[in-house]
Amino acid sequence: MTNAASSLNISGMRQKTAAIVVIGNEILTGKSEDKNASFLIGEMYRLGVALRRIVVIPDDVEAIARAVRECSEGFDYVFTSGGVGPTHDDVTIEGVARAFDREVTRHPELEAMLRGYFGEGIDAARLRMADAPDGSELIRGVDMRWPVLAVNNVFVLPGVPELFRKKFESIRERFRAEPFHAHTLYTREEEFDIAPRLDQVAAAHPEVDIGSYPTFTRDDYRVKITIESKEQAAVERARDELLNLLDAALLAQVD
Amino acid sequence: MTNAASSLNISGMRQKTAAIVVIGNEILTGKSEDKNASFLIGEMYRLGVALRRIVVIPDDVEAIARAVRECSEGFDYVFTSGGVGPTHDDVTIEGVARAFDREVTRHPELEAMLRGYFGEGIDAARLRMADAPDGSELIRGVDMRWPVLAVNNVFVLPGVPELFRKKFESIRERFRAEPFHAHTLYTREEEFDIAPRLDQVAAAHPEVDIGSYPTFTRDDYRVKITIESKEQAAVERARDELLNLLDAALLAQVD
User: Fold this and answer.
1) Digits of tens for pLDDT over chain B (255 positions)?
2) All residues at 6 or more sequence positions from B37 whose CB lies less than 8 Å from its CB, including other chains
3) How far is CA A57 from the centre of its chain?
4) A85 touches chain B (CB under 8 A)
5) pTM for the full model?
6) Domain spans of chain B?
7) What ipTM was predicted for this assembly?
8) Least CB-CB distance to A26: which of B87, B88, B213?
9) Shortest CB distance from A216 goes to which of B28, B162, B191?
10) Topology of domain A7-175, per CATH?
């Protein structure tokens, strides 16, 4: 299912990467709030998959084709959200097909399922749900009537949040990888003041991802520092080194 | 400030477009929830600017350079969020500079402001806030001590939500355009059943953006239909035509 090179992090550990392509004018105009990317962010993290890009684009075949092609080439897994219904603004199937230079044809297995569900008097709008890029794979998830459509490393999911979630959950376990390990420190020192020490630890531990996030609205701390890696020992080494360098009297919390 | 062609919609009305580039590992790993893109979605819509892309990427110079370059070429305005602090993971300035093949140098006016604020004993971490791509513009907003940095059509904003909001609000009025006009219909008909009628109205009114959004969790309606354009009369024509075609007995609400 993977046509993209897995990213090799500095310590040589191969890491699976993912991208989310959210399709929908309604998100870009604020008519609906995104719930699917924000759901998948948490799922990817808990699965140990490194999410590297989220892109939100309009219901436009060419924009979808370009985003899907780029993400498919750059990352191991691509999840699309939205644009798979029966109306004129549902053009994700056409966009994904164009990303891979394929035709859209009626998928015989999907057609049979739809005819079984809606009966033989099924109309064109309902039958359109059997349209798929040539050579699509149907993934039968756990506890789901309808399969998830996949083309190469691209998984096509619906925009309706309840359905998106159910469909993703039905195929979730196939993405499980080594977990991330993380620690978080909170300090009352100023970010400007700790910057040289953070730089020093970050440079000494390239295999660890260190983040620094100031806040100006809290009384209990001024900077949240996150330390993360797939290697537990590396996270602990970086955390201990940082704890040695930070002012213990101004340390608010260590998680 | 604009190096991108404004998009010309089908009725020939020139429309300003925008993109948002959110920079931050913390968003992609779920350590922080995005608040800036979601804030800007509403602002752009109310300003009458067509938001065409949101992209969330890691703290990576090359990823930032590529996203900023693409968005700057494709849209009238680009807003970046995040990565402008004093620590090792703040690489937005370098990324924006690389997008336009410029060097990062110390901006004399920013340096003078920082020295005035922090005093002459200012350290390297604080002075780093004066680093900017060569030829950056400083935009002095309303009621703000610090200006907004802009390079061509790219506006560089901080990731901390309170600061992002304040800085954007200080320059907001320069983006104001013709407003969008929209109506929303709610029907208890099935989306499959109304699809042919929606297609018909959408095809007859290419200058109007018609969206169809089913729900499976509400009792009061099954599909929300949005009708939108910069031309009020066009929206009303499309709405009236659609109202004639929909089953009046199953119409739940018209806004």
Assistant:
1) 333 444 545 444 579 999 999 999 999 999 999 999 999 999 999 999 999 999 999 999 999 999 999 999 999 999 999 999 999 999 999 999 999 999 999 999 999 999 999 998 899 999 999 999 999 999 998 777 889 999 999 999 999 999 999 999 999 999 999 999 999 999 999 999 999 999 999 999 999 999 999 999 999 999 999 999 999 999 999 999 999 999 999 999 888
2) A56, B20, B22, B54, B56, B81
3) 15
4) yes
5) 0.94
6) 7-175, 182-254
7) 0.94
8) B213
9) B162
10) Molybdenum Cofactor Biosythetic Enzyme; Chain A (3.40.980)
